[in-house]
Amino acid sequence: MSDLDDIRDRLRAAILRGTYAPRQRLIETELAEEYRASRFLVRNALIQLASDGLVELQPNRGARVREISVPEAVEITEIRQAVEGLVARRAAELITDEEIAELQAIGEGLAEAVSQGELLRYSDLNATLHSRIRDIAQHATATRIIEQLNAQLVRHQFQLSLLPGRPAVSLPEHLAIIDAVCSHDADGAERAMRTHVGGVAGTISTLDPQGRPVDQEPAW
């Protein structure tokens, strides 16, 4: 891995875990000192992250973490709906017995996490399920598109698995995806995935700019 790749990946990871907040300025001199890198490397890393949709470059003002609006998040999720449907179809066609057992175990973990109110565990298993389905599908281009789209949405305000009541809604959707993929039901897998991701888009559309349901008061 080159020095540029290393700086880019470290900055990307920091943005995705919320170290830098949406709209926060990313000052080259400070980042160069923090990451012990040259400003040239930092600048080029920011340019690459801008092409991924994580950073925006403003003329004469430098870089800042790009904020994703609710309408844009809905549009991104609608694109995901089509591509992830294709991936689920492909996974249903290619899944092996060993992979079937793995997905079924993830489904059991999701159900257990909901029953015990473990939202963080549910969120992690949710991400694992979608990632494993992409792995099983072996569709490199679709995976690249989905991961880039997901990177733009991995902000605290769009972590829907942590919204009260959301896991109970999405659990049967996830289990339907698992059942269809594991049954080699390509049509059913695509349909179940599109239904699930469509529900995600619908839920996002009800949020305010801070990622809260519109009728939810801020917690102090």
Provide the descriptors you would attach to this structure in a database record.
220 residues, mainly alpha, Arc Repressor Mutant, subunit A, 2 domains, three-stranded antiparallel beta sheet, 3 strands, globular
Topology diagram in text:
Elements lengths: L2 H14 L8 E2 L1 H7 L4 H13 L3 E4 L3 E4 L4 H25 L2 H19 L3 H19 L2 H14 L12 H17 L3 H19 L16
Antiparallel strand pairs: 1-3, 2-3
Descriptive notes:
The protein has 220 residues and is mainly alpha-helical. It has 2 domains: 3-65, Winged helix-like DNA-binding domain superfamily/Winged helix DNA-binding domain (Arc Repressor Mutant, subunit A, Orthogonal Bundle); 70-204, Four Helix Bundle (Hemerythrin (Met), subunit A) (Up-down Bundle). It has 9 helices and 3 strands. The protein has helices at 3-16, 28-34, 39-51, 70-94, 97-115, 119-137, 140-153, 166-182, 186-204; strands at residues 25-26, 55-58, 62-65. Strands 1-3-2 form a 3-stranded antiparallel β-sheet. It is globular and about 55 Å long.
